[in-house]
Every structure is written in C-alpha cells, then in structure tokens.
Design brief:
This protein is α/β, with parallel strands linked by helices. The chain has 13 helices and 17 strands. Strand 3 and strand 4 form a beta hairpin. Helix 3 packs antiparallel against helix 4 and helix 4 packs parallel to helix 5. The protein is globular. About 8% of the residues have low confidence.
C-alpha cells in the first residue's frame, strides 16, 4: 500500500449550522453521512450516487434507474409487520434533495479534513436529482431490465451476456416476458462490459462479484460461452480486477457494518471467500441455470467453468413434486434437478437451489411439501451451498394467475405459506452435519438493482 493511500475507514465529524453533529465515514465501498444519533443517515456509492437512506424510522433504497423503495415496520397486537412502498417521483426527489443537502453542509465545513473525506464529499456534491435522472438514461442504454438475482448477489456487478430467458414459459414468472432471448456475440459483450465499467467508475468498489446475466445465461453452449468469458480477461476489465484482487489499490477491508440497512452486506459474506484456483484473478462469477440444461454440459465442462472463476450456480427448483412442476410449465423434472445438482457438485461447484413455499396453492400443498423435502434431502448439499425458501407471490397478469382461476387452485393464506416454510425447514436432513448448507428466506420484493 502506498503511503498516499488511506487506511479505510476514514472518519470525520463536524457540526451543522443549526448545531447538529454530522459524521462522515469514507469506506472503500461506500460513503456514509450521519446526523446526530445516526438518523437521518445516508449511504452513497464511491462515485457519489445516493444508494440508501434512513430517515424518520424508514429505510430507503434507490435503484440505478432512479426509483426509490421505502421500507418500514409497523407493530400491532399481532406483532411486527414489514411494509414497503415504491415512492412517487416527487417523494423520491425529496429524499434525494435531503441527502445531497446534508452532503453540501458537510462540504462547506471540509476545508481542513483528511484528503479522503474531501475527495468523497467532492464526489457526492457533484450529484443532484437532475444528474441522477440523466444517469438513469445512461443506465437504461447499457442494460435491459435486471429481473432478479439471488439474495447473496444483490451487490454483484451484473454483466448481461444474454438477454431474457431461454425458456420464458414458466407460468408464475413475468420478469422476462417482454424480452426475447438472445446471446450476445463477443464483440457485443465486449461493448457492454466497457459501457458497464464506464458507468460504474469508482462505484465498482461496491461490487464484490460478477453475476453473469440474464435468467439462465449458462445455457449458452460452451463454444459460445468461453469466448464471452474470455472478454473478462481483456484490457480494462482485467486491469481493474487484477488491481482489486492483488491489493495494489486501497486495501480491501471487507464488509463494514451498514448504516441502518441502507447498504446491506451480501446475505452470506463468508461464502464469498470460498477458495478459487490459485492462479485466478477474476472476481468470482455467479449465474442462474435451469436444471434441464445442466446435463448439456459435462462434468469436465463445469470444471473448466470453475477454473474460469464460476463459483456458484443457482437453480430455480421451485418444487420437488412433478405434477406441480408440469402445471407450472417448468422445464425438466425433480429427477433432472437432482441430476443437475449431482453433476455440479461432482465438478466441485457450489450450488444454490430455490424452492417456493405456497406455490400451487391448496390443490398441491401436501405433496408439494413432501416431495420438495424429499428432493432436497437427496441432494449432496454441504458447506458453501445454499437453500433458499421463497414465499410464493402471485404476479398480476401472469399465466399462473389465469390458470389458478381456471383450474380452481385456491391460494394459501400468508399463515398457511409460513406453515409451509416451517414444514420444509423442519423436514430437512443435513447431508453432512459437519458442513451444512445455509438455509435462508428469499423475498423477491427485496431485490433492487
């Protein structure tokens, strides 16, 4: 580390004109501003974009396309209930204006501050609502909508090697309904990667992994996939990732405690450090695939992808009950899911599987839980692997919603769904008690990019 590089985090405190204490903390991956006893507080990425806020008991998260979600808890006689609501444009702008107003107050006092604080405040105060709106347009010129990510990848750098979903016919999913599936050429992907790097700039420090998108990018045949991965070994991208991995830039101090929940750490930070080949310089790669296509690559193919940095593959299993999978129009069967997991594990790959509690409603409730638990228990999942249990939420306008009415599949109550979650979790039998997989809740409404 150069003597000119700061040892993160760098902290500084001042007073506002109205006598309130104002704290600034500069970390490698974020800039935090806190008033008084941590409220309000604001998190900005290293380029100065507002990332999140905590104001008057509510958390706010801003997306890169300049929308804002508000989250809070309400307590009544039945207990605490989590609430969320997308803000109107005017409401979002008021939070943005408040955040950058506080930053301006800090900048006015920053004449004798550490250099890292001065630079951070300079970066933040270059932004306002108008520039964020222009930034949204730039973001939308680089990306098609990022539909969903696994929770452990919410802070990944998304690189779209494909657009859409190759199957795009699961009745419950509407994420990619208007996006035709397409595989990019190496030149197209190279241009996309260059645009992503230029867009994020210093904010790349907030991203700890790469998610190869979209919905099931790993269906791409090896002859077309490997040239896409080769793009990540070229030029500017290689220089950035080598710098990040070898520590020749500011030191990587790892995740710091978040300010409120404005900057959540990845769900399982310890899993991000799973070992990669010693000669690998890439940030770890993650991606989705449907179970039906895993067997189209050999164990040797998956081993080669692991050598290229692919660390964990996520499969939307949904259920272990074949009649329900057919009704959902999922590609493949429960046996295909089991074979897929076994193949990936034989290649030394970490795996995460997603199951949906409540899908199929009352008509499928019993066999769905029974067969899902049986399938999970047959999988050789261990340390480094993940089981996500997602409470099913019917998407308005989906084929599922229409089919549920046509075939009389009654929806379960929230309490019924929670009972299914408990039944699935309690029925799990750990494959290796010394190295168990992590089991976690997956709320698709929590995803923002």
């Amino acid at each position: 580390m150069s003597s000119l590089e700061p040892a993160f985090p760098v902290r500084w405190q001042t007073m506002t004109a109205d006598g309130r204490s104002l704290h600034v903390m500069v970390r490698e991956q974020a800039i935090n501003l806190l008033l008084d006893n941590d409220s309000p507080s604001f998190t900005f990425d290293p380029a100065g974009r507002l990332h999140g806020a905590f104001v008057d008991g509510r958390n706010y998260r801003r997306t890169l396309d300049n929308r804002m979600l508000s989250k809070w808890s309400e307590r009544d006689a039945a207990g605490s209930t989590r609430r969320r609501r997308w803000l109107t444009g005017e409401e979002a702008r008021s939070v943005v204006d408040l955040a950058y107003g506080v930053a301006s107050q800090a900048a006015e006092q920053a004449g004798q501050t550490p250099l890292a604080v001065q630079q951070a405040l300079d970066a933040v105060t270059r932004w306002d609502w108008k520039r964020l709106e222009a930034d949204r347009q730039r973001f939308e010129s680089i990306y098609t909508p990022v539909g969903i990510l696994p929770p452990d990848q919410y802070l990944a750098l998304v690189l779209q090697a494909t657009h859409g979903c190759s199957h795009n016919a699961c009745t419950f999913c509407t994420f990619y309904s208007d996006i035709p599936f397409r595989i990019k050429s190496p030149d197209e992907f190279r241009s996309h990667v260059a645009g992503v790097l230029a867009f994020f700039g210093p904010a790349l420090a907030m991203r700890r992994s790469i998610f190869l998108a979209d919905a099931n990018a790993l269906v791409v045949p090896m002859k077309r996939l490997l040239p896409l991965l080769d793009v990540l070994r070229e030029g500017e991208f290689r220089e950035i990732t080598e710098t990040r991995e070898t520590g020749t830039s500011a030191p990587n101090t790892g995740p710091s405690p978040p300010v409120a929940d404005a900057l959540p750490d990845p769900t399982f930070p310890h899993l991000r450090s799973a070992s990669l080949p010693s000669d690998s310089w890439l940030l770890p790669l993650f991606a989705f695939i449907d179970a039906f296509h895993v067997e189209r690559k050999s164990v040797a193919d998956w081993q080669e992808l692991r050598e290229r940095g692919l660390q964990r593959v996520t499969i939307g299993m949904e259920s272990g009950h074949d009649p329900l999978l057919r009704w959902l129009n999922k590609p493949g069967s429960a046996a295909d899911v089991l074979d897929a997991v076994r193949t990936l594990k034989a290649a030394g790959m970490a795996v995460s599987v997603i199951v949906m509690a409540g899908v199929g409603g009352m008509a499928y409730a019993g066999p769905h839980v029974h067969d899902t638990v049986a399938l999970l228990n047959a999988m050789p999942l261990a340390g480094g692997d993940l089981i996500y249990v997602s409470e099913f939420k019917e998407q308005p306008g989906s084929q599922y919603a229409r089919d549920a009415v046509q075939f009389g599949v009654g929806a379960l109550t929230p309490a019924d769904i929670r009972d299914q979650v408990a039944a699935i979790r309690s029925g799990l039998v750990v494959y290796d008690s010394s190295q168990p997989p992590q089991v976690s809740r997956y709320d698709i409404d929590e995803f923002l990019y």
